[in-house]
Structures are given as structure tokens and as C-alpha cells.
Design brief:
Largest sheet: none
Shape: extended
Number of helices: 3
Strand content: under 5%
Length: about 90
């Protein structure tokens, strides 16, 4: 049976973990992530319900990211989905 990858909370823990044989690890638990390279320099003011904000903050906390980044990801995914439906291939996050 393959080993799960433990949560590594410090650089030291990560270095010690990487110093061992990793061939028996279960890599199926990895999820793709999106790196943000584009400068975010335009502020936006958005009104949403308190319940929606609470739900977004809870999900962001579970994922370990700021809630504003989660909101931006959700907007980008929605736009990408609509653009693909419309047959537009260009990226919105150039």
C-alpha cells in the first residue's frame, strides 16, 4: 500500500521528508494548482451577502488561501467556462 504524503508545516520538515526514499508515495492526492504571475493592480468593490462571504471565507480557509484569491479564481473559472462555450480560446489571465 502506498503512503500518503504528510502535511509539512516547516521548511525543515519538508527537507527531512525529501531526504528519504519517496518511491512508495501515493501521488494521486496531489491537485493541480494555478500560479499567479499577472500583476493585480486594479481594486474592485463588490457587494455580496454576509452568508456568501462567510461561505467563501470558510472554503478559502480549508484550502489555505486568502479569500480574495478564491473569489478571483471563481471569477476566472466562470469567465473561462463562458468563453469556451462561446468558442473563444484566448486567455483572460495573460
Amino acid at each position: 500500500m502506498k503512503r500518503k504524503i504528510p502535511k509539512l508545516r516547516t521548511d525543515k520538515e519538508a527537507e527531512e521528508f525529501l531526504d528519504q526514499d519517496l518511491s512508495d508515495l501515493d501521488f494521486s492526492q496531489f491537485k493541480p494548482i494555478q500560479f499567479e504571475f499577472q500583476k493585480k493592480n486594479v481594486p474592485v468593490n463588490l457587494r455580496i451577502s454576509q452568508a456568501m462571504l462567510t461561505a467563501i471565507k470558510e472554503e478559502a480557509e480549508e484550502r489555505g488561501i486568502p479569500y480574495t484569491r478564491l473569489m478571483r479564481e471563481m471569477i476566472e473559472k466562470g469567465l473561462k467556462k463562458r468563453r469556451l462555450k462561446a468558442g473563444k480560446q484566448e486567455s483572460i489571465s495573460k
